[in-house]
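Sample entry (203 residues):
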Amino acid sequence: MLISGSQLKDCPILSLHVGGQIARVVDLIIDPNNLSLVAVRVEGPLVDPDEGDILMMSAVREFSRAGMIIDSNDEFVRSEDIVRLQKILKLNFDLLGLKVITKKHAKLGKVADFVLQSSNWGVQQLIVQRPVMKALIDPELIIDRSRIVEVDDYRVIIKEEREKSKTKLKAAPIDDLVPDFVNPFRQPDFAPDNQSSSEVSSE
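Predicted structure, serialized as tokens:
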């Protein structure tokens, strides 16, 4: 399933243990080395920053219209407890706002949003906001992951603009994932009663 980064901001976190919302997403933590979402920072009434305000994406049972579903707030961890995450946080990387240029240094715009694949939480496309003059003709540029050559703290370098993707991946609907557990937050589907009154035996 495809999800835009903007969909995840302020996304509810639902607990199977509590049976409702316990937190919400306030920040996305992306690994610049492989452009994947590894964790989110959360806040809420059952979140104690001293105990942990980080949710690793590996702990998410399902993502649906209701939000991210996890077992309980025990899934929230401290960044200090995960070595790999500490290294990523020290980079202070933010994909949004990065300049996008080609290998020949042509300026294409800035990253305004991105599309993720929920199966591995990898970035599949960049949504690039064009400079003012180019925006009059083409306000939005879609960059496929396969065109990305390099990413650093300030810019994304891609293959030449003439090779740009013409198709934008759709980051919806978000109800198509089939969970491997009973999801109490999913609306039930009631099967129609096909038994007619004529089929009821009379005594």
